[in-house]
Amino acid sequence: MKAIRRFTVRPVLPEPLRPLSDLARNLRWSWHAETRDLFQSVDPERWASSGQDPVRLLGSVPPGRLAELAEDRPFLRRLSAAAADLDDYVTGGRWYQEQPAGLPAAVAYFSPEFGITAALPQYSGGLGILAGDHLKAASDLGVPLIGVGLLYRHGYFRQSLSRDGWQQEHYPVLDPNELPLALLKEPDGTPAQVSLALPGGRQLHARVWLAQVGRVPLLMLDSDVEENDLGERGVTDRLYGGGSEHRLLQEMLLGIGGVRAVRTYCRLTGHPAPEVFHTNEGHAGFLGLERIAELAAEGLDFDSALEAVRAGTVFTTHTPVPAGIDRFDRELVAHHFGPDAELHGIDVERILQLGMETYPGGEPNLFNMAVMGLRLGQRANGVSLLHGNVSREMFSGLWPGFDSDEVPITSVTNGVHAPTWVAPEVFRLGARQIGDRRTEDALTVGGSDRWDAVAEIPDQDIWELRRNLREQLVTEVRERLRVSWRQRGAGTAELGWIDGVLDPDVLTIGFARRVPSYKRLTLMLRDRDRLMDLLLHPERPIQIVVAGKAHPADDGGKRLVQELVRFADDPRVRHRIVFLPDYGMAMAQKLYPGCDIWLNNPLRPLEACGTSGMKAALNGCLNLSVLDGWWDEWFQPDFGWAIPTADGTGTDPDHRDAIEAAALYDLLEQRVTPRFYERGQAGLPDRWIEMVRQTLTLLGPKVLAGRMVREYVERLYTPAAHAHRAMTPDAARELAGWKARVRSAWHGVTVDHVETSAATPTAELGSTLSLRVRVGLGALAPDDVEVQAVSGRVDPEDRIADASTVPLKPVGSPDAEGRWVYEGPLALDRTGPYGYTVRILPTHRLLASEAELGLVAVPSEDVGEGAGVLMR
């Protein structure tokens, strides 16, 4: 019989065990080994069967066992120590509290997904895991962050395989009462709610669940509440599910509802109000509109409110491809804003202008969430150096007239939260060298360029660690493979071969990620004979563990999965290559440490960062990757291999895959496998161990989320907080008025004449020319602009590269025609073909970038003296 109603029955813990509830409800346990060990000792079997989830564990422990533990003095001492440690962690001063004054009072961090722990499955892939690591690192550093996301009742899908290897999706229903969450409540005990207005007088209501991530609160909005109609209840049903309107409503709830949830949380708890709002990808971009509406309600006009909001907003883009950005039809967005819908106090045309692709190459009827994010954020960044370059190119249409390297998008290279991803065995090896506390600080705060203590670890210890981790992976793979084959319909009698799958002494390669086409899951299958030779080599075999999910709507990705699975099902190689379904955090925490090589072969430059290789590196796994994302930035031959790319513009995609697959096979055959199996005098692979040592010494400190969050604080959050404080209502009105005046008058700004003191087309290195420029400023004054000389090497088309700029100074008063003369020196500081030009830019003390307005005036073709001067 089926129950007509469901309850969640919570355990009543004996008084001495009450701290267990606090420990279970703070997700710090997910990266704190001592707390996990404590929960495991409550009941080891139930700990394993609960998926290592303390909330589920405590809900299943018999009262008799709890009574026994309540009398167990050694257990109670451990419990007391763990509770005291957590209290010190969440209340004591950390890195942030030791910094000079002026840092943000609080930062609100919005993301559509968060990967904190497998016990809270609210993530699909790298974006969510990155967001979770950002929160954890902020907690470790003491950064006063508030996370904001949605609570998806079905999470992302669970993946299994059919008998013929086709991906199948399952959407288990999550009960928030059985998750490590608590409802945010008003003082009278009723659940706190936020609401959005929908067209036709309807409302979208959402409750706010709180996940405590160490020191950081994570607010998660849930529309599955009784006050909503059936359609509205389903808004937060699935991560990245549904059609356009469904996604739009999710993103309105995340952005607009998220700001309202933050305000509610701060009101109820006394948490400082955020001075900085960080939009992690475009999905949360509507948060800027809600903040404009807040300021409009206080009497600020739209343009002034826009300037005030931009000052304190940071936008991070994570995709290097336009297809990865949410775009909506103009009419759909207009339908959900305006007089009878949300933000009715703001002219819907002003809202639309923020997201429309009104630039060369854009589609003018589409509302682009990343474009809105850039227009609403004064500071923006990509997630690796290469991705910063790609982003500046991709969005350069928003700043016409500027070279792509001047587009105001910087980069902060991603990092990973080491306490989450480093195997306990690796941590213990480090602690033996420098102690627990120093190891913990090295993995969380970071700050050093090298981990030189790794040099003191004996080769034998490193090699034993690597084999131990590989052996654990072999055990894990066999267990998961057996479960997968049973789901595929195999009987126990068919599965004896699984006991021989993988070998703890064979070179093990890992490949695990989402399965869009650009990540090229099946590149390794390009020449199956060569791959088989590698897998079955009599002296130097390899083995490969593959995992990954294709998006439910991506049949092309599912076909790639099936192709890989069918190859791995071949009885000739199934002991050497496996596909593990349902890739997630729990699997990843065994997979990264257990592999010797982490393989990554995307189409360059389509991998924004690719943090899985960072997690592997922290465990002594070597990277074998295309020079994309973070690997392009930090690769050295001392600690890994770069797969050559065939990325010429004229290269046929199929031919490119063939070339790069051949390069991959060559590396494996000629360089990787010989080094792994080659033995030195002590019977150890000395050169391999040295590469592991270099990976830990040189890459370890770089790939930390602690390093990443410190960069955000120093380079983006703190300047944004200062800009926010400077942008008083009067200052916002001043800036908005100035921008309007400059835009309307810019047509009158001209460079009329340029001359230099050079008499010949050559000059000596180190000499200085005098520049004299006559400009027209129309209705503007010299205080409104900066006249610059721009100089540098020139290519055969006279394009200036590696440009340097020098401001020129006005001389005297305007002439009878209203023209101004500017003068200044031009130092000739490099040899070879050299050129210069002159340009005029708007300037104001409250601008974050000289390109902010996208306005520039340059000489016309017939002004000046040609390409410049040559130096010898």
TrEMBL record:
<feature type="domain" description="DUF3417">
    <location>
        <begin position="13"/>
        <end position="120"/>
    </location>
</feature>
<dbReference type="InterPro" id="IPR024517">
    <property type="entry name" value="Glycogen_phosphorylase_DUF3417"/>
</dbReference>
<comment type="similarity">
    <text>Belongs to the glycogen phosphorylase family.</text>
</comment>
<protein>
    <recommendedName>
        <fullName>glycogen phosphorylase</fullName>
        <ecNumber>2.4.1.1</ecNumber>
    </recommendedName>
</protein>
<keyword id="KW-0119">Carbohydrate metabolism</keyword>
<dbReference type="InterPro" id="IPR011834">
    <property type="entry name" value="Agluc_phsphrylas"/>
</dbReference>
<dbReference type="InterPro" id="IPR035090">
    <property type="entry name" value="Pyridoxal_P_attach_site"/>
</dbReference>
<keyword id="KW-0663">Pyridoxal phosphate</keyword>
<dbReference type="InterPro" id="IPR052182">
    <property type="entry name" value="Glycogen/Maltodextrin_Phosph"/>
</dbReference>
<keyword id="KW-0021">Allosteric enzyme</keyword>
<dbReference type="InterPro" id="IPR000811">
    <property type="entry name" value="Glyco_trans_35"/>
</dbReference>
<dbReference type="Pfam" id="PF00343">
    <property type="entry name" value="Phosphorylase"/>
</dbReference>
<keyword id="KW-0328">Glycosyltransferase</keyword>
<keyword id="KW-0808">Transferase</keyword>
<comment type="function">
    <text>Phosphorylase is an important allosteric enzyme in carbohydrate metabolism. Enzymes from different sources differ in their regulatory mechanisms and in their natural substrates. However, all known phosphorylases share catalytic and structural properties.</text>
</comment>
<dbReference type="Pfam" id="PF11897">
    <property type="entry name" value="DUF3417"/>
</dbReference>
